[in-house]
Amino acid sequence: MSMPMLNKMHMNGYDVLSVNNGPWRVCTQGDRLASFASREEALAYAAALPGYRKRSVKAQSHNVS
After folding, report:
1. Quick check: helix, strand or coil at residue 50?
2. Which domain of life is it from (predicted)?
3. β-sheet bridge partners, residue 36
4. How far apart are the C-alpha atoms of 24 and 34, rounded to whole Å?
5. Which run of H or E residues covers position 64?
6. For a FRET experiment, which of 2, 23, 41, 53 has its CA 20 to 30 Å from that of 11?
7. DSSP characters over 4-42
8. Domain coordinates of the chain in residue numbers?
9. pLDDT score, position 18
């Protein structure tokens, strides 16, 4: 039985990762934004997105209507 292989990078506050040589995914901690066939495409997509910062708990509670 083989161990899963994880390739993970960060770009602009987003995670760019691939598991077991599968598709490259651009994600935040809670959302998968897109999948790509190559690492270069995924990195270009992450670079084109606005910078991502996780919201603080205080900021999230003020935005609830």
Report:
1. coil
2. Bacteria
3. 24
4. 8
5. none
6. 2
7. P-EEEEEETTEEEEEETT--EEEE-SS-EEEEESSHHHH
8. 6-62
9. 95
Distance CA 65, CA 16 (A): 32
Both structure tokens of 52: 């991502």
Q: At 5, list the tokens.
A: 């292989």
Q: What is the pLDDT of residues 4-57, one digit of tens each?
A: 899 999 988 899 999 998 999 999 888 889 999 999 999 999 999 988 777 666
Cα–Cα–Cα angle for 45, 49, 27, rounded to 5 degrees: 70
CB burial of 19-57 (b: ≥16 within 10 Å; e: otherwise) equals: eeeeebbbbeeeeeeeebeeeeebbebbeeeeebeeeee
What are the tens digits of pLDDT across the range 12-23? Answer: 889 999 999 899
CA distance 25 to 28: 10
Task: For the chain, give the number of residues.
Answer: 65
